[in-house]
Amino acid sequence: MHGAQRALEDPSQLYFGPHQAIWRARLRQPLAGAQWTGITTRMAERLLEENLVDAVLTMKPAAEDRWRPEPVLVRKPSDIAACRGMRMGYAPLLSLIEPALAQGIKRLAVIGIPCQVYALRALAEQYGFADLWVIGTPCSDNTTTENFHLFLEKLTETPQTVSYLEFRADYQVELRFEDGRKKLIPFLQLPLADLPADFFPLTCRTCVDYVNALSDITVGYMGGEGQQWLVVRNAKGQKLVELLGDELVLTKPTDSGNRHAAVRGFVENTQRAAGGLPLRRMPNWLRPVVGRLMTWFGPKGMEFARARIEMKAAETVIHLSRELPAKMKTMVPDHVRRVAEPVLLKKT
Ligand SMILES: Cc1cc2nc3c(=O)[nH]c(=O)nc-3n(C[C@H](O)[C@H](O)[C@H](O)COP(=O)(O)OP(=O)(O)OC[C@H]3O[C@@H](n4cnc5c(N)ncnc54)[C@H](O)[C@@H]3O)c2cc1C
Fold first, then answer.
1. Does 140 sit in the ligand 1 pocket, CB within 6 Å?
2. Is the full-model pTM beyond 0.85?
């Protein structure tokens, strides 16, 4: 779908997959209720407004639990808004593909995380859509909605009133509450060590496509330094950017700091955890200080994105070689191996 393989010799493609352009981006008028500024939602809306697709397949919040994603086929531009926001959790997005075909939908747009897009691309040919648009978001890890509620309970006394959560690129988790309050929690102070070992399943811990390389465009935040981040992968991705016209503010991504210490710390802790050893814990009094230093001096913009790609690649190799070594040969693609190897070989 990109007309070329990932060029492994090009460092940018090695890390971020095939692309024509990478942008720091934001909507001039952010959409209320969106996860960031709502670029994803607006692109889907524009496809429907321009009658380029018959429907958009995405996730809406379940009626009984705002954090539970539920697949939905949206036909009217005004109905996309109800799907805004990120909900951690699994839901069978592609289960609505066959119902879509049965309803005569031939031109479809799909918003999905990488594992959903992989399956979609594998199946798309046999389904024979007249046109297929794929807006992908990156995804580092996912878990069940039940586990997500458990996590919220550890972060706040009033988990039922949390309306927004994001793992930001400045090393803090942002929580928003129904009454408009906000809370920032530095990553270092997250109760990660108190979570069950299988909080993130092996499939996520060994994921090889953080950046959603098979989408037409990836819309995330990881290289956006406080804004959004676009990886335009092919002509359709470029068309989606153009559909937003003046509503979209595009700038060159920032790139500063040095990722190596952060990646090394992560790799050491992942190796300890995978080996059943306790995580190296920093004294409580030091955590806010180091958290603040990371915000100031840690890798930012594209360097932060490279750091996260290296962490994820190393995590995949560490967990797969420990838990399912026989699958190493077939399940770790070249690009992940190339990124992980130097990181794992580095001495501390
Ligand atoms: C589990 C998960 C982990 C993520 N991790 C990262 C990350 O590490 N780095 C990064 O840069 N970005 C990550 N993202 C993407 C990020 O949270 C934003 O969705 C993205 O930046 C788009 O922002 P927006 O304002 O344009 O989205 P919006 O306009 O608010 O639209 C968000 C879209 O995501 C869809 N969606 C929500 N939950 C799910 C779900 N569980 N499965 C599939 N689709 C869903 C919604 O239906 C909606 O269409 C993750 C997303 C998910 C679902």
1. yes
2. yes
